[in-house]
Amino acid sequence: MTQTHAYGAASASQPLAPLNIERRQPGPHDVKIDILYCGVCHSDLHTVRNEWHNTLYPSVPGHEIVGTVVAVGDRVTEFKPGDTVGVGCMVDSCQHCASCAEGEEQYCENGFTGTYNGPMFGGENTWGGYSENIVVNEKFVLRVGHDAGQLAAVAPLLCAGITTYSPLRHWQAGPGKKVGIVGLGGLGHMGVKLAHAMGAHVVLFTTSPGKQADAKRLGADEVVISKDAAQMAQHAGSFDFILNTVAAPHDLDAFITLLKRDATMCLVGAPASPHPSPNVFNLILGRRRLTGSAIGGIRETQEMLDFCAEHGIVSDIEMIAMKDINEAYERMLKGDVKYRFVIDMATLKQEAKAA
Ligand SMILES: [Zn+2]
Ligand SMILES: [Zn+2]
Questions:
Q1: Ligand 1 is a single-atom ion; what residues have CB below 5 A from it?
Q2: In which band, very low, low, confident or very high, does the pLDDT at 147 lie, cut at 50, 70 and 90?
Q3: How far is the CA of 159 from the centre of ligand 1 (A)?
Q4: Intra-chain end-to-end CA distance of the chain, in Å
């Protein structure tokens, strides 16, 4: 075990503060990563404040990790010291169930192990990327092909990027397809960029008229103010796919009625309380589908990173120092971020050295 500086919460009611955690020595199949940047996901906040009622303390969040390999176990063949790599939401899974066998580890039937807060169905706690380094099985380490100057903005691809890429691919966003993205936050802004790069006709739905220009800059072909019933009605029955990234409970029917026959709306925002039930007639008439999707498998996450490197896609970020994380959480709650906070982990190392 090695002592590692980190930031975490001792309980649901306490702010994040410096603490020390222990990382295991790299085993034969492990990769030790010096963390350069870590994105700030809304799940981090939900977890440290125990809003999903399953948090193990102390809680060290962070699952949008980019860093440099500093050591590898003697059986590791795919990575070597000096490589630039990423780690997303998972660090392990059972590796033998049907989902794992198909490379869909995020749906592991025995529960994947989260990068933080441990295995889904109970077990020892795990600590995430708000720390100096992390030790991860090579199967859950991703290769980053972006330029060195882009690495901070690559970090959010590991959660926000794959969470939007996977359903866009699964429901075949591409040329000739009309794709809606609901919400322009951390997830939504990635959805717009990715759907645009895949060649779809992209329509962004927002409640804020002020976001119109930014949505077009990010790649939206059209922007619809979803509170405006007349604007919404113009798009009735016309969408091949809608990716709904909004986590606040809202009226799903307003969007379901915009789908073509047999088209799908996929939810990727996780509301703390349920959406009002949709009107079943809107599903029956048109055989429309309402579904959800969770991150993506390791193979697909690598595909997403390669796609983004090839198309020059990164997240729009605001960089913060580790000590400013509590303030960043408060701003995130107000939607006051364009569009993702990323922690510069050099600031944690400096802080630890000064202490
Ligand atoms: Zn996340
Ligand atoms: Zn499995």
A1: 41, 43, 159
A2: very high
A3: 5
A4: 22
